[in-house]
Amino acid sequence: MEGDDGLASVFGRFFSVSRMVKPEDVAGEIPSSRIVYHDLSRIAVPSVIEMVFMSLIGSVDTVMIGNLGYEAIAAVGLVGQPRMLMLSLFFALNIGVTAVVARRKGEGRKEEANHALRNAMLVIMALSVVVTAASLAWSQTLIKLAGAKEDTLNMAVQYFRIMSYFLPASALTMCINAAQRGAGNTRITLMVNLTANIVNVIFNYLLIYGHFGFPRLEVEGAAWASGIGICVGLALCIASLFVKKFSDGFLRLSLKDDWRLRKNTLGSIMKVGGNAMVEQGALRIGFFAYAAIVANLGTEAFAAHQVGMQFLSLSFTFGDGLAVAGTSLVGQMLGQKRPDMASIYSKCCQRLALCASIAIASTVAILRFQLAGIFLDASNPSSLEPFLLAADIMLMVALFQPVQMQSVVTSGCLRGAGDNLYVAMIMIICVVVIRPILSCIAIFAFGFGLFGAWSASLVDMTIRMSLMYRRFNSNVWQTKKV
After folding, report:
1. Lowest model confidence (mean pLDDT) among 8-12, 312-316, 439-443
2. Tally of domains within the chain
3. 98, 179 Cβ separation under 8 angstroms
4. What DSSP state is assigned to residue 31?
5. Which residues contact 100 (CB under 8 A, 6 or more apart)?
6. Are 175 and 93 in contact (CB under 8 A)?
7. Per residue in 445-456, pLDDT tens?
8. How many CB atoms are closer than 10 A to CB 379?
9. Is 12 contained in some domain?
10. What pLDDT shows up at residue 32?
11. Which of 14, 67, 211, 244 places its Cα 20 to 30 Å from the Cα of 145?
């Protein structure tokens, strides 16, 4: 019993908010731990559920495609980085939207938050048309650069071109969801993305295999199913802004509003989003290069890599959900002139992320063969090699958990404060320089193959986590203006 009491005491001190800020840094009344974790869970839980379900449904998508063969998994995986490259501009702008809306909500400036969203929507709609045209014009070139081989090229190009048609709808949906997250409305984004992805899975079943009179389109059908899901998500996003009964009351738009572009409004978004734009563009080039390096190991290795990435993405969602909460609450607290509470919410997110990462790492390591078997059939001789390789990669996925989650959560909190320039610099150095160089050395100089590529990524993530922590502990982020 004494041991249990001692353990409870250790956990109590670890999660106690009163120990997370120095007495001299306190700027007002500190709520109880119960209240702080309740506020955090109100935003984080819907966000984590949203991210997890999106990733799970994405995994179901991959399983359904995987029934067509490991070549189909590789083909769809090849599209990932070129598509993310095309969306990088919108990811960057949306980081600015989230930070500005969160800060304006903390300041109680509702109209300014809504005007920022209106301006962002107009800019993103215009830019998305241009990016779509570029995607369609360069589709085959991009897929070849991503490392497509003869057995995957045509499937990958078809999938990429169809997804490009839905890029404007996807970009606008992301913008609205970014604003809702900044306002703390993660229940709305949960509903939007969960519904959209369920629609995606339903149409996957109908269009990949040709059930209930629908044509059998295989990989092409998976792309059309994703596009239909994206359109459903956009419709729900628009309803959350324009239909009163679906709106939360803070973000509320009307066609009668002032939709004119304002220099100061766009300037606030670009102050954060501009740094993120450089970051996102560079990151996508880095991830693109990394994926192309791995693709050169062959279709079997790349299929195993995609299986590992599915589970890394799934585990990433826990950290990403907590990062969303950190971004929103840090922005709101700094808007209320409470840097002490911003620090407390950040540290609560970090502690919860640590506990989640340990649980996920243990599960992945123990069940690695069963998890790999979800995507690849070990009883099929042609799939045995990628299955065994994928099962071994699961051990690397387990090792990633603590460093990945801490890096994601801490960088999310820094972004909420508007400290995007520092985050951008670290991400560029790690992803664009360190990861590709170490991957090439591990694969081509030492012949470590797929494990070499994953080891390089682990080194990159560890350096990234260390530098994010160093910045967070300096408290420089608390003085940023948005």
Report:
1. 8-12
2. 1
3. yes
4. P
5. 113, 116, 182, 268, 269, 272, 482
6. yes
7. 998 989 999 999
8. 8
9. no
10. 87
11. 67
In this structure, what is the dihedral angle of CA atoms 456, 460, 463, 466, given to the nearest 10 degrees?
-120
**pLDDT tens digits, one per residue of 374-386:** 877 777 777 788 8
Burial class of residue 256, CB neighbours in 10 A (0-12, 13-18, 19+): exposed
As to burial, measured by CB atoms within 10 angstroms (0-12 exposed, 13-18 middle, 19+ buried), residue 32 is: exposed
Q: 301: burial class by Cβ within 10 Å (0-12, 13-18, 19+)?
A: buried
Tokens for 399, please give them: 């090792």
CB 78 within 8 A of CB 156: yes
CA atoms within 13 A of residue 288's CA, in its CB half-sphere = 21
101, 117 in Cβ contact below 8 A?
Answer: yes
Query: pTM to 2 decimals?
Result: 0.71
Q: How many whole angstroms separate alpha carbon 433 and alpha carbon 22?
A: 37
Q: How many residues does the chain have?
A: 482
3: in domain: no
Give the integer Cα–Cα distance in Å for 37 and 31: 10
In one-letter notation, the amino acid at residue 11 is F
| Buried b or exposed e, range 311-349, using 16+ CB within 10 angstroms | bbbbbbbbbbbbbbbbbbbbbbbbbbebbbbbbbbbbbb
Q: How many whole angstroms separate alpha carbon 154 and alpha carbon 152?
A: 6
Asked if the structure places residue 367 within a domain, the reply is: yes
For residue 13, being part of any structural domain is answered with no
Contact partners, residue 264, CB within 8 Å, separation at least 6: none
Task: Give the sign of the dihedral formed by CA 292, CA 296, CA 301, CA 303.
Answer: positive
What is d(CA 69, CA 71) in angstroms, rounded to the nearest whole number?
5
DSSP of 308-355: HHHHHHHHHHHHHHHHHHHHHHHHHHHHTT-HHHHHHHHHHHHHHHHH
